[in-house]
Design brief:
Elements lengths: L3 E4 L4 E7 L3 E8 L4 E5 L4 H11 L2 E4 L2 H6 L6 E3 L9 E3 L4 E4 L2 E7 L8 E7 L4 E4 L13 H12 L6 E3 L5 H11 L4 H16 L6 E2 H7 L5 H4 L7 H13 L2
Parallel strand pairs: 4-5, 6-7, 11-12
Antiparallel strand pairs: 1-2, 2-3, 3-4, 8-9, 9-10, 10-11, 12-13
Helix pairs in contact: 3-8, 4-5
Protein name: hydroxyacylglutathione hydrolase
GO molecular function: hydroxyacylglutathione hydrolase activity; metal ion binding
Keywords: Hydrolase, Metal-binding, Zinc
């Protein structure tokens, strides 16, 4: 799968496929062509992609600290992460040129899991969550997941969503079992399969799209057809997805 770049009103974001189905991201500060990388699982590959894009990386992980001495490494303060020299807490804002990056604790996945809300001085936004899914509840609960999904749902509908894995087709195939007649699910699944065939990433999406086909962001809609409160619906979805 090839690297892809999406220039949006907030920032230029380069998607770098790594490992078998992961994504790393290079968020470029256009003011001075510096960049932050998100989850650089294959540091050399990410560094090469940054060089090809003509940008200098300012943030990464432990291996990147060895390859680029003096680099800033940001990470959650709620769990141990090798190489972190800038521990982050929920609500903290990282200033990066014209961008403000707000840390959002998402403890439903792992106890220290973070989402990063990137906002420019021009008030355009993008967001990172797991695409058409929400991540397993490894160390958290359905209630924590519902809280985070509700928080994200209040953000601008045109906000871009970036994910950690290329699970889109599998996640949408699951969504079909939940809402077999949802036209948004069926349309996005068809499109995603075609992108997969062409070797293209399926990211980013928008928040509006996620609200239309991501079952984990549709618990209020699904509650009309499933007995239980929102947290019970979320738990049921996660258990069903785990077995899918």
């Amino acid at each position: 799968m090839n690297n892809t770049s999406v220039r949006n009103p907030c920032a230029n974001v380069l998607t770098v496929p790594v490992l078998s189905d992961n994504y790393s991201y290079i968020v470029i500060n256009s003011n001075d062509n510096t960049a932050l990388c998100v989850d650089p699982a294959e540091p050399r590959k990410v560094i090469d992609a940054a060089k090809a894009a003509g940008v200098v990386i300012k943030g990464g992980n432990a291996e990147m600290s060895r390859l680029i001495p003096g680099i800033d490494v940001y990470g959650s303060s709620y769990e141990p992460t090798p190489g972190v020299n800038n521990p982050l807490v929920d609500g903290q804002v990282i200033d990066f040129g014209s961008l403000g990056i707000t840390c959002i604790k998402a403890a439903y996945h792992t106890k220290g899991h973070m989402l990063y809300h990137v906002k420019s001085s021009k008030n355009h936004e993008m967001q990172s969550i797991l695409f058409t899914g929400c991540g397993r509840f490894f160390e958290g609960t359905a209630a924590e997941c519902q809280y985070v999904m509700d928080k994200i749902a209040q953000m601008p509908s045109d906000m871009l969503i970036y994910c950690g894995h290329e699970y889109t087709v599998k996640n949408l195939e699951f969504a079909v079992t939940v809402e077999p007649e949802n036209p948004s699910v069926l349309s996005k699944l068809k499109w995603s399969r075609e992108q997969q065939r062409l070797g293209n990433p399926t990211v980013p999406s928008t928040l509006q799209e996620e609200l239309e086909y991501n079952p984990f962001m549709r618990t209020r809609v699904l509650q009309e057809h499933i007995q239980g409160n929102l947290v019970q619906v979320m738990q049921m979805l996660r258990e069903k997805k785990n077995k899918f």
